[in-house]
Amino acid sequence: MGRRHWHVIEEEDGALTMTRNMPVRFDLAVETILSGVTGRRRLAHLVRQDMWRALQSLRGFAPAVRVRRDARSMHVRAGGAVLGRFDRSGYEALIAQVLEDETNRARWMGGVR
Asked: 73, 33 in Cβ contact below 8 A?
């Protein structure tokens, strides 16, 4: 699989999961809810990119993002698989910083380009 290829899984509950590796694993994960509704695939892609930038030094990291939409919001689970030992709480804190950054959130939901 090339660098641009990702597995995109449409789940029965209406969620979409984007991952590099199959099966999907969330050895570390952080969840958030974003107000408003946007495209699940676009949102998953943008979150994955920003999370990768923050965690690219984590050896053996394979990002995964799950997005589920309801009537008024987007539920995001970001994290992924990690080969080997790692500081779970430290890296989950980095993911949380990415997910809670107001500039990121506005861009992901289409407010800032």
From this structure: yes
Order of strands across the sheet that contains 7-10: 7-10, 16-19, 61-69, 73-82, 28-35
Whole-number pLDDT of residue 21: 87
pTM across the whole model: 0.90
Residue owning tokens 């992924």: 80
Using the predicted structure, report yes or no on whether residue 6 has a pLDDT greater than 80.
yes
Residues 73 and 91: their CA atoms lie apart, in Å, by: 25
Torsion of CA 16, 22, 55, 110, to 10 degrees: -20
Tokens of 94: 């980095």
- The continuous run of DSSP H or E covering 30 comes out as strand 28-35
